[in-house]
Structure formats: structure tokens, C-alpha cells
Amino acid sequence: MIRTRGLTKRFGQIVAVDDLDLDVREGDIYGFLGANGSGKTTTVRMLLGLVLATSGEVKLLDHPMPGSARMVLPQVGALVEGPAAYRNLSGRVNLALFDAMGRDGDASSRDQRIEEALEQVGLAAVDKRPVRAYSLGMRQRLGLAGALLRRPRLLILDEPTNGLDPQGIKEIRALLLKLHASGTTIFLSSHLLAEVEQLCTRVGVLDQGTLVIQEDLATLQQPTGRTLVRTPDVKLARGLLDGQVEEHDAASLLVRVADPAELNSLLVGKGVRVEELSPERRSLEDIVLAATHPASDQVAL
To answer: Is domain 2-221+291-297 annotated with CATH 3.40.50.300?
Structure first.
């Protein structure tokens, strides 16, 4: 659905995106991660033909961009850097104008599609207030409704939950999962690791313009081979497991053993109160932090 090869963008002496090879497959919910300024938005703009690459190639839906934009973009819904709208017009009028500007907008079904999109994003009850009276969260929902108007095969979203409260974030997450279940491929650019971890099937991590990770999330979070033991008796457990404890703190240990069941039996038999014993799996936050530079090193682009 999205493929880039050697995609590079320079602004003068600054390399915003460097030799990027993205591979987003049909059916993915692809989380595109990186600190603010890592090059995510520049990449999204190049995917959509809004910014020309310095070098490399982009394909959307197996067609080269931006050369095939007139054929491809009607099948792609996009929200980039917040929604654009005429502030003095209502949300419905904005959506009608947006749809009418498309070369293949079906006028006969326009009203129905607008109502459907507004309902999907939680704006079905919106009145005739102008967009200037909307909250940031409402404007974000309106932008997402615009991305859904054409019932796209591919959704490209740049920080779609920006400005939403926790309930709004939960609702948008549920909507994206529903769209995915109906066959929509989703490319989600975000810096919110917790959201991506709950939502995405595959992730790419951008660090200072370079793709440092691209893998299925399940693969990245496979057991590490160590066993996590939570216990109030850390000192006693360490004494019993001399040489096997690789890390510990006041409430837990990370132990490398061949047989976790045997480990549990040993600890319990010696009076250690085991509150949890489970395979260690790295969080997405741990994975990203290990692969990237501190956010303070990024240059905003």
C-alpha cells in the first residue's frame, strides 16, 4: 500500500529524511513513530505529493507518486498537521466543499456520506456553528471526517488524536479499529507510544530522519528469554539465585533460567512470596528509547 525506496529530503544543509525504505502492507495498522522533529511530517507530505523528494521514490497503492496523484489520491484519506477549514463556515459546509473539490466527488451521495462521516467521528449532533467556534478536539474530528468522506482504501493520519481528551482518544481508537476490520489500511504517524502500542500491528521508528526499526509489533515484543519475578522478598530471592539475577530493584528481579516453573517451585519452597512470575517482554517505549537519540537532539521539520 505504501512503499518508498531511498526516499530523501534535504532542506539546504539539513537532511530531514535520509534514505527511507518504508514497507506498509495491505491490512496493516502501521504506527510511524518518532520524536517531534524526527522527520515524520515531512515523510507524510512526500507520500501525498505535497512536498517533492530530493531523491528516491514513493509508491501508493502500487502507483508512483506524485505522478499518479490524480488516480491514487481519491482512494486515500489523509489528515496532515491538523485540519484545514474555512473558519466562517459550518463543519457540514466545509465537508461539502471539500468533497466537491475532488474530481470524482459523487454529488448524489454527498449528503449521505457527510452525515455518515460526521457520525463516525462523533460530530453527528453538530449544529450550524462556524468552525471558528469549534474546540481543537472538534476541529480534529472534523479533519478526520474529511479523510473518511470517500471511504478510502488507505488512511494516512498525522497525529489524529491531537487535542482530544482521553474519552475522545478512546473513541477515535475504536473507530480506527472498526475501519481496519472493514478492510482499510491505516498509516498512523504519532509520537504517542501508548496509543500505537494498543492500536498498531506493525511499527516503523524514525530517528533524525533515519528509519531505525521496521517490524511487526508482536515480533518486537517477543519474550526476551528472561523471567520477571515480583516479590517483597527480593533480598532472600537474590541469595537463592546467586549468579542468575541479571537486574533487580526493590520489588522485582529479572532472572535468566531455563525452566520458569522450576524457578517458581524453588522460590516458593524456600519461603519467597512470589506475587508475579512471567516472561519478560519489552514495552514499545523501551524498544524505541533503545534505538533512538534523546528527543532534545531532534531538529523540528
So the answer is: yes
